[in-house]
From TrEMBL:
InterPro entries: RNaseH-like_sf, TN5-like_N_sf, Tn5_transposase, Tn5p-like, Transposase_11, Transposase_Tn5, Transposase_Tn5-like_C, Transposase_Tn5-like_N. One of its GO terms (molecular function) is DNA binding. This is IS4 family transposase ISPye60. Residues 381-463 form the Transposase Tn5 dimerisation domain. Residues 10-68 form the Transposase Tn5-like N-terminal domain. GO terms for biological process: DNA transposition. The lineage of its organism: Bacteria, Pseudomonadati, Pseudomonadota, Betaproteobacteria, Burkholderiales. It comes from the Bacteria. Residues 233-377 form the Transposase IS4-like domain. It comes from Paraburkholderia solisilvae.
Length: 477
């Protein structure tokens, strides 16, 4: 019975591993073991998660193996993400963003550099500021999310480091960035991720690639056109439009307000308030930058402005300027695009789980290759926590067995007592709340749904409880 339960507990791990493309089946087995060990010891060091020297040494050897890279580690997860996308209906929001993992090392050249900052000198930190080049790894990822916010998995990931770092302002003194081909810039990652995720998901008309101001790249607009897919990005460039004698902002100044949208938010003290946004949208011809007009054609795009009416004193005005190749013909469609862009924050939550839950920045591995492999493993764990958190909100009527094994459900029923409010919830929601209660969630009637922090705390406690439960079963025969 113990063996059967153990096999059942690894079912989600097997799903994320079975499509892996390792060069050796032994590496796949080792990866499955490491993934399970790090899941059981999420947020802990590798020796703590592995528990003995043999397993710890095997983990270190796997992460430093020259035949293992981040693509091998994530290949199975990518395939599982594609299967989850196929099992859903409606649009798929592909959220793109970049994050930085910072480290302190005696030999930072073994990892690479990410940027520059300043650090105050002196024992009490009151001395003059000294320039400091930051050591670390950059990761650009594409997270597939359903329209109601359920994270379906990663669709593309790119890691890189810099042998040296020069700020953008310094580079602009020597070269005109608009004259440099996009293939020679780090911005190329936005286009590559769009291509890889579109190919993986194999349904370009369902994909809406969403990015912040950094993704306002004309080449990205052209790539979306070539792939027959869609994008929705926040614009920061006032591009030439219509006949080339006007800019987008000048055209939008002539567009009248076409609707209002009220949004609920909280002020700096946490008090609820309502903001009224004026909606303007216009379909127009957008031209490439002057230096690129010989290489790229004009695009027919829609510009959407959402600007707050009468903002209160002491708070910055809410203002979103979006550009897309999706049609916006009504107030309802405009609000839909705003809601989709608001989903971009989901990838920030994913990065928070990576850094706070998995503690990816606390690893002591010494080289970029080993850290990259470890972060790739953490990406799968972070997605799993995020998925468990959002599943009960997005699909409360789903089967509880979709997220929990029979053993986990049995233990949660025995250990956690339902509140009167929780007792009436569907089975999946009940077990999610029980798990969150193990992590410190109070489950009061007016409490918001449990978040990621209490979920990963609860999962760690449940893992320890399950180990004791299985040992008790083994002793009793």
């Amino acid at each position: 019975m113990v063996g059967k339960r153990r096999k059942d507990d690894r079912s989600w791990v097997d799903l994320e591993v079975q499509g892996s493309e390792f060069r050796d089946t032994r590496l796949r087995r080792r990866f499955a073991s490491l993934l399970e060990e790090l899941w059981d010891g999420m947020g802990q060091t590798i020796p703590f998660a592995c528990q003995d020297w043999a397993s710890t040494k095997a983990a270190y050897r796997f992460l430093s193996n020259e035949r293992v890279n981040e693509h091998d580690i994530l290949s199975g997860h990518f395939q599982a993400s594609a299967e989850r996308v196929k099992a859903t209906d409606g649009p798929v929001l592909v959220l793109q963003d970049t994050t930085t993992f910072s480290y302190q090392r005696e030999r930072p050249e073994l990892i690479g550099y990410t940027g520059k900052t300043t650090l105050r000198t002196g024992k009490d930190g009151t001395g003059p500021r000294q320039p400091l080049t930051q050591c670390g790894i950059l990761m650009h990822s594409s997270l597939a999310v359903s329209a109601d916010g359920l994270p379906l998995g990663l669709a593309a990931v790119k890691f890189w480091t810099r042998k040296r770092f020069k700020g953008a302002s310094e580079l602009k003194r020597h070269i005109n960035p608009t004259r440099v081909p996009i293939e020679e810039k780090e911005s190329w990652r936005w286009l590559e991720n769009m291509r890889q995720s579109t190919e993986l998901l194999d349904d370009p008309v369902r994909c809406i690639h969403i990015g912040d101001r950094e993704s306002d790249i004309y080449e990205l607009f052209c790539t979306a056109y070539e792939l027959c897919t869609y994008f929705l990005v926040r614009t920061c460039v006032d591009r030439l439009a219509v006949d080339g004698q006007h800019t987008i902002s000048k055209v939008m100044q002539q567009v009248q307000v076409k609707g209002l949208h009220r949004v609920e938010l909280r002020d700096t003290k946490g008090r609820p308030m309502t903001a009224t946004l004026e909606l303007r949208y216009q379909h127009m011809t957008v031209l490439p930058p002057i230096g690129k007009q010989s290489r790229y054609p004009a695009q027919q795009l829609t510009v959407l402005y959402a600007q707050e009416r009468d903002p209160p004193p002491g708070r910055a005005r809410i203002e979103w300027k979006l550009i897309t190749n999706l049609p916006v013909r009504s107030r309802t469609e405009a609000i839909e695009k705003l809601d989709w862009y608001a989903m971009r924050w989901k990838i920030e939550t994913f990065y928070k789980i990576l850094k706070s839950g998995c503690k990816a920045e606390e690893s002591r591995l010494r080289t970029a290759d080993r850290l990259t492999n470890l972060i790739a493993v953490f990406c799968i764990l972070s997605w799993r926590v995020f998925w468990l958190t959002m599943l009960a909100r997005s699909a409360p009527q789903a089967d509880a067995e979709l997220a929990f094994t029979h053993t986990e459900i049995e233990l949660l029923e025995r250990i956690v007592h339902d509140t009167p409010h929780n007792a009436q919830a569907p089975p999946l929601v009940r077990n999610v709340i029980r798990l969150a209660q193990l992590g410190g969630y109070l489950a009061r009637a007016n409490d918001p749904p449990p978040g990621n922090t209490v979920m990963w705390r609860g999962m760690r406690r449940l893992t320890d409880i399950q180990i004791g439960y299985e040992l008790a079963l083994k002793r009793s025969g």
